[in-house]
Every structure is written in structure tokens, then in C-alpha cells.
Amino acid sequence: MTSSSMLSSWRAWPLALAYCLTVLLGYLTSSYWPTTFFFNDKHNVLNQYIVKLGWFWTTVALASTLTTHRKVWLRYGTITLYWFMMTQWCFGPSLIDRVFIASGGMCVQQEQAMIGVLAQATCRKLGGQWTGGHDVSGHCFMLIYSSLFLWQEVPSLLQERSNKLSQYFVACLLGLWWWMLLMTSVYFHGHLELLSGTFFGVLGWATFYYLVFPRVEALSNSETLLA
Fold this sequence. Notes:
Membrane topology: Multi-pass membrane protein
Number of strands: 3
Protein name: Inositol phospholipid synthesis and fat-storage-inducing TM-domain-containing protein
Oligomer: single chain
Transmembrane segments: 12-29, 49-66, 168-188, 194-213
GO molecular function, one term: coenzyme A diphosphatase activity
Helix content: 55-70%
Pfam families: FIT
């Protein structure tokens, strides 16, 4: 990662703080929002086809810049691995599912615990209820983590290659995701679940862009100098 990328990392901290404050604002004002509203229905079209397919749209947003930088795509692959382990699979259940089970959660069907069902998706397919544990907000995690990734990578790429369509697409996506983050904080999850989702989102971004990527870049530069 170049020095300019490191500078953008420091500039991204206010954005990370803004996302945290958005979650806090949504939770604190939740009692003032209408109880019957398009966004408090988890089956609304934006939630189903934008948020739940969030990493697909993240990939589309990055691809829309038409970047061919190998390092950018390697960082994307690393970032994707963390998202995948958090939400999809981590040598079995995802990390979010593991937190739920470790905190006392289980899959229940007709008041009977379904032993051996350790993933929310599997539980729902079997007609069970995923209940009793700490349900990390996957929406908070994905929306914050993905947004910070795009803020980190896309502006410098668009400076190199002006692409109006990509600018509009990424701007609209980031704006929509901010709004959906607010709606998630207003209508879904308890405060601790929102907090943990926010924590894991910011943690992943900070770990990679402040620890992992700078060290890899420094190691790569030192090897180049010695060659």
C-alpha cells in the first residue's frame, strides 16, 4: 500500500466514527419512528436484494472502477475472506453463528432443541427458530465493513481513471447503505447486538488497513530494495 493509501486510512477514521454514531443515533431515536413503515419490514425489496446481497454489490462497485491493479484485488480478496468467515463459513458455522451458539443460543422446533444444528440458515431451512443467544447484527457488520472498504479503495482509483458512471454508482450505493444502517439501528436488534455488529465491522477494517496491509507493503518494499 502506498503512502497516499496510508494517508487515506487516517482520513477514514472520521467516517468510521460517523458510522458508529449513526448506529447510536438510530437506536436512541427508535421510539420516535413510525411503527408501520416500509423499512421496518425485513422483507422489503431493498433489504432483500441490496443489503442481503451486499458483498455482491461491493464487488460490482469495485469492478466498476475498471481497476487492473493487482494489489487492489489482493486486498479485496483478503477483505472478502474476513466477510466470508464472519457471515458464511468458518471451518463449520460462521463466526456470527458461533457467537450465537457460544452465548447460549440454539435452534428450537416445537419447543425441542435441535441438537447438532449450529447455523441459522440450516435452522430456518428445517423450520426451526434461532433463539436464545447473542445475535450479532450481520447488517451492521456488513454495511459498515463494506462501506469503509469502498471509502478506502475507490476514491484514489477514480482519481487515476475518471469514470462518471462508477462515481454515481458507488455514491448511490454508499448513500443507500448509510440509510439502511440507520434503519437497521432503528428497527432491528437490541443495543448489544448492534454494538457487536458495529465492533466487528470496524475491527476488520482497522486490522487490515492499519496492521496487515501496511506491514505487507513494508515487507514488499524492503525486498524490492534488497533485490
